[in-house]
Amino acid sequence: xxxxxxxxxxxxxxxxxxxxxxxxxxxxxxxxxxxxxxxxxxxxxxxxxxxxxxxxxxxxxxxxxxxxxxxxxxxxxxxxxxxxxxxxxxxxxxxxxxxxxxxxxxxxxxxxxxxxxxxxxxxxxxxxxxxxxxxxxxxxxxxxxxxxxxxxxxxxxxxxxxxxxxxxxxxxxxxxxxxxxxxxxxxxxxxxxxxxxxxxxxxxxxxxxxxxxxxxxxxxxxxxxxxxxxxxxxxxxxxxxxxxxxxxxxxxxxxxxxxxxxxxxxxxxxxxxxxxxxxxxxxxxxxxxxxxxxxxxxxxxxxxxxxxxxxxxxxxxxxxxxxxxxxxxxxxxxxxx
Length: 337
What we know:
Blueprint: H1 2-31, H2 33-49, H3 56-81, H4 89-106, H5 109-132, H6 138-157, E1 162-163, H7 167-170, E2 175-178, E3 181-184, H8 185-203, H9 205-215, H10 217-222, H11 227-252, E4 255-256, H12 264-274, H13 286-305, H14 310-336
Antiparallel strand pairs: 1-4, 2-3
Helix pairs in contact: 1-9, 2-13, 3-8, 3-11, 3-12, 3-13, 4-5, 4-6, 4-11, 5-6, 5-11, 8-9, 9-11, 12-13, 13-14
């Protein structure tokens, strides 16, 4: 009798957890309203306060400035949705870019991209294995891996930079002009990746399992979800996205630099949080992250156009992050009542 009662209680907990996870996932589409409103307000304010913000060249620049961190943040979103975090994503991207850049100097650029993909996926798999199989805290794992990978990039290149002149590797910075607004292939790729991941998260069973896992690891296990395999897969998929970010970086700055993008990990987390994804997992999505990355860039660009010191730009971005986390906490408390 006791075993049956315990089993029934577990089943009830399972149903409750999965139902709640489904509700949170359904609510994710509504969560982009806040970030989108903030983006619109920021654009209006800077358009009215400066004479150069709302012109085609500057708007094109904003989109181009957003792609590297914006793409990196897409992979970060997947991991945060599982209630994890990846402090090593910027280092993985930089390692991928220097591997690609150094190999492309003497070999085929396509081969260089393939090797960069293998390297980044291997690091992502190590992160995923340590988190899923050994159950180590994602924060500690990725912090340690970040240090190792940052050092590895410098050792691999002897702290040298490598110019990249291959059209395949730098071509993402080219594009087409539409009414004076230049849409680069990098921006198109960013939009495409966002659409693919949004579909995967919201329209496939894989996405359902990711949200369920982020909402409650225990409930996900009770539901029969292979948590370890799923977690490992998420880290690998995120690493694939980081390779695209590395490709974007080579398009933006045709130089493979082992010391570049030193704050990319924190910038990607900022975009994810401002975009409405909860740091506690199970709620949010990549569309909000896309908007969050634009908000950060619009804020930086607009304040620069207005002649505001860059230190105040950092203050404004930090305040936005704190407000976003505070709102998330408030929403969670209300939902738990």
